[in-house]
Structures are given as C-alpha cells and as structure tokens.
Design brief:
Layout lengths: L13 E4 L4 E3 L7 E6 L6 H12 L1 H6 L2 E7 L3 H11 L4 E4 L4 H5 L3 E6 L2 E6 L2 E5 L5 E5 L7 H10 L2
Parallel strand pairs: 3-4, 4-5
Antiparallel strand pairs: 1-2, 1-5, 3-8, 6-7, 8-9
Length: 155
C-alpha cells in the first residue's frame, strides 16, 4: 500500500466529476487542493462531511483552495447525491480505483466482526505546487472541516 506523507509530491489524478466534467491535479496547479476520501455517497457520515465542507466552501475559495470529495461511486450516483444534499464541493468518481489505491486509502476494515476492503475516511491538503502539506487519516467528521480550513489558510 502506498503511504502518502507530508512533504511528498501528491499522486496525480484524473477523475470524472458529478457535473459531467473531469478534475485533474495538473489542472489545479496554482491552487491548493483538499482531497477527501469517503466510503459511500448518501450515507450519514459522508453526507455530514460533504455538507460541512459545502457550508464553508466560500472560505475555502477565499483561501485559493479547491475541495474535492472522492468515492468509488458511479458519476450518476454522485450527481444525485450532490443534488439531493445541495453539496457545493467537487464530487469525483474513482470507479477505476486508481486514485484510492494511489493515495493508500483502500484498506481492510472491520464491521461487526466482518473484514472487508473499503475506503478509509482520509483527507489530504496539497499546496499550489502539488506537495502534500497535511494528512488526516481515520477522520472523525465532527470538527474536521474547520481544522482543514485552518490548515488551508496557513499555506
């Protein structure tokens, strides 16, 4: 598994987005990027996280920061999720699994004694030059977005 640490070059990505477009790391050069990984669209924790980021999207934009939420859900499901929950962040689909593997967030999980592979809730803050500046793993949603915003402002 890839271990992304602070100070390393962020893995490149190119993903389809909920709005029918594409988002690439190369296309965001000159801006900071928050890329957060979540297990599944329209589940309680993932909805709260998306809404929390969306509520502060103007402040992220003022800090020259783009926020991208990534799951392995198909684009159509992400579009419904964004529309239903009025999400303002870029939602990207990693159906091919390249990005979740590249960022090392496809991990073994346990639930009710059952082991399975899934996306670890994790967030990466990438500076305008494409270098990872902060890594949050095993994220707890409550209070997380404010912490990420503070870190983005400090770049």
């Amino acid at each position: 598994m890839t271990e992304i640490t602070e100070g390393t070059k962020a893995p490149a990505f190119d993903m389809a987005t909920a709005d029918g477009g594409r988002v690439t790391l190369a296309g965001l050069k000159g801006k900071a990027v928050v890329i957060y990984f979540y297990p599944k669209a329209d589940t309680p924790g993932c909805t709260t996280e998306g809404q929390d980021f969306s509520a502060l999207i103007g402040e992220f934009e003022a800090a020259n920061t783009v926020v991208i939420g990534v799951s392995r859900d198909p684009v159509k499901k992400l579009a419904r999720f964004a529309d239903k929950r009025d999400l303002k962040v870029v939602l990207a689909s990693d159906e091919p699994e390249d990005v979740t593997l590249g960022y090392g967030v496809w991990v073994e999980k346990k639930l009710y004694g059952r082991e399975y592979m899934g996306i670890e809730r994790a967030t990466f803050l990438i500076d305008a030059e494409g270098v990872v500046r902060r890594v949050w793993r095993k994220v707890s949603v409550k209070g997380h977005v404010a912490e990420v915003l503070a870190a983005a402002r400090s770049l």
